[in-house]
């Protein structure tokens, strides 16, 4: 095991024990109360090992639904990809794109709400009890900083999806304490910043090795500021990360998304925070059926890239196809941005194991394309047993995002100045991609450079689950998405009120104090 990246995974067995501590849910307690058969708190919290076991349980919550590998499916709510209607991993994603968002919708929608609260509940339990351990205050503050970072991550997911939500600062054991009114969106953001400020003050510096570090919290806080369009505050934080010179771009774009690649120091230097997995005990999915990214994307084709995305990749000379001498109408996807070949399986591609030469089957596609990013072809041919090997870490934050957020923030503040082009060129010129510098004459105004930055974000982070929140924070989802049709010819629907998702009927029944978002009955 490579401890530079996978070090935290040595706590896997302790994680399972801690997950039992924080327990499952029952019908009335949607915040995961401590079950009766859990480890007694009277004999716990007596050592540093107890604290680390409990903290591992909080991290374990990241493996569920959209906090883990399934976050990639958020791209199926955008113009990047189509969700196969047979996707039982996150049902009804395709329904959400065509006007079916409602409080009664099951599947993905309630998961977007409930899963962050499970993480919040576990973090609150940890924070309410960690002071009982006989440890030095400085060490306890580091552990608290990790838990508060994770809590902030969960609330950030919630506020982006639902706006104002209920804020719980402590672990609750009484149902009446859970039934409270939601906080305003501004109050939720204030609480997120409070947690992240504590994390930044107490987390250690250095590379990410499984535990959140200072730059993890700085980067997420910058993303929060970007969402709030506080460009100046975002720029200051991003400048600190860049000046620190701890993180850098990986020397292989493709290797960022495979287990072996993520174990390389030359690759994981780009990763700033991730949901971690480790075969065979902590893999993507074994129940209720075999799953995980290799099987779900590389065999079942549950998320299929749109031609709209594929056509957005430039030629290798950095020009659009209609402007480039490299473009060949007979071979339209030859000589493209190399990131295309690491992201999308093109119609002419064959699934081949690069080590053994074995081939593998993949289900038909409705769009003409398949997802290649996150799929490890060295595990071909994919079978149910492949689920016991699929442990690619899902990357929440990487250094390329720092550079592109910085370019965006500076352009919003100062327009097309030198430093904006420099950040774009670093990402486009990364090893193995090697695209030419941005054409400054073509992208010389703030407006057209803004569009180009957004294009670059789409390409760099395609099928990583970021575009949905990007389209919403740019306030263009309601104009862009309705121009799209799914493979059945049904138009996408995204109305103004869809910037905020509805609370489910179940949540409204559980908490009569919870007020439904505007636009939903």
Gist of the model:
With 521 residues, the chain is mostly helical. The chain contains 21 helices and six strands.
Largest β sheet strand count, sense and barrel closure = 2 strands, antiparallel
CATH topology of the domain at 46-203 and 476-520: Serine Threonine Protein Phosphatase 5, Tetratricopeptide repeat
What's the mean pLDDT score?
92
Distance N terminus to C terminus? Answer: 52 Å
Assembly form of the protein: single chain
CATH architecture of the domain at 46-203 and 476-520: Alpha Horseshoe
Under CATH at level 1, the class of the domain at 46-203 and 476-520 stands as Mainly Alpha
Backbone shape: globular
Helical amount = 40-55%
- Helical/strand content category: mainly alpha
Strand content: under 5%
Lateral strand order in the biggest sheet: 1-3
Number of helices: 21
GO cellular component, one term: cell outer membrane
Family: Belongs to the SusD family.
Main location: membrane
InterPro entries: SusD-like_N (IPR033985), SusD_RagB_dom (IPR012944), TPR-like_helical_dom_sf (IPR011990)
């Amino acid at each position: 095991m490579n401890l530079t990246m996978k070090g935290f995974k040595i706590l896997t067995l302790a994680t399972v024990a801690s997950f039992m501590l924080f327990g499952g849910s029952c019908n009335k307690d949607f915040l995961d109360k401590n079950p009766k058969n859990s480890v007694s708190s009277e004999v716990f919290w007596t050592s540093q090992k107890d604290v680390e076991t409990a903290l591992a349980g909080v991290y374990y919550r990241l493996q569920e639904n959209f906090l883990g590998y399934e976050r990639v499916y958020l791209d199926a709510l955008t113009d990047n990809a189509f969700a196969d209607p047979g996707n039982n991993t996150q049902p009804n994603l395709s329904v959400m794109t065509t006007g079916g968002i409602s409080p009664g919708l099951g599947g993905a929608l309630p998961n977007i709400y409930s899963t962050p609260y499970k993480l919040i509940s576990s973090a609150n339990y940890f924070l309410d009890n960690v002071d009982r351990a006989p440890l030095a205050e400085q060490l306890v503050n580091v552990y608290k900083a990790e838990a508060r970072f994770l809590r902030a991550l969960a609330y950030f997911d919630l506020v982006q999806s639902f706006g104002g939500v209920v804020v719980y600062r402590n672990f609750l054991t009484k149902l009446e304490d859970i039934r409270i009114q939601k906080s305003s969106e501004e109050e939720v953001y204030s609480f997120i910043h409070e947690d992240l400020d504590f994390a930044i003050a107490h987390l250690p510096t250095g590379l990410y090795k499984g535990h959140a570090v200072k730059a993890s919290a700085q980067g997420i806080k910058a993303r929060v500021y970007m969402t709030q369009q506080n460009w100046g505050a975002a720029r200051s934080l991003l400048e600190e990360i860049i000046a620190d010179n701890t993180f850098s771009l990986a020397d292989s774009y493709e290797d960022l998304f495979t287990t072996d690649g993520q174990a390389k120091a030359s690759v994981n230097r780009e990763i700033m925070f991730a949901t971690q997995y480790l075969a065979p005990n902590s893999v993507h999915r074994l129940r209720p059926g075999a799953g995980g990214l290799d099987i779900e994307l590389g065999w079942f084709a549950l998320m299929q890239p749109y031609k709209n995305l594929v056509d957005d990749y430039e030629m290798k000379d950095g020009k659009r196809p209609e402007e480039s001498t490299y473009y060949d109408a007979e071979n339209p996807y030859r000589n493209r941005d190399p990131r295309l070949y690491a992201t999308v399986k093109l119609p002419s591609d064959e699934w081949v194991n690069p080590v053994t030469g074995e081939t593998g089957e993949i289900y038909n596609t409705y769009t003409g394309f398949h997802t290649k990013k996150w799929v490890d072809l060295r595990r071909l041919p994919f079978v149910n047993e492949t689920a016991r090997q699929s442990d690619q870490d899902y990357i929440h934050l990487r250094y390329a995002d720092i550079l592109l957020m910085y370019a965006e923030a500076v352009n919003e503040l100062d327009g097309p100045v030198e430093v904006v082009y420099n950040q774009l060129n670093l990402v486009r010129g990364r090893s193995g991609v090697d695209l030419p510098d941005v054409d400054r004459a073509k992208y010389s105004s703030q407006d057209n450079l803004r569009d180009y930055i957004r294009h670059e974000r789409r390409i760099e982070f395609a099928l990583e689950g970021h575009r949905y929140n990007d389209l919403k924070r740019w306030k263009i989802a309601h104009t862009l998405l309705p121009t799209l049709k799914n493979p059945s010819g049904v138009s996408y629907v995204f109305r103004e009120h869809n910037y905020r998702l509805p609370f489910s009927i179940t949540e409204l029944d559980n908490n009569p104090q919870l007020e439904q978002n505007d636009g939903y009955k």
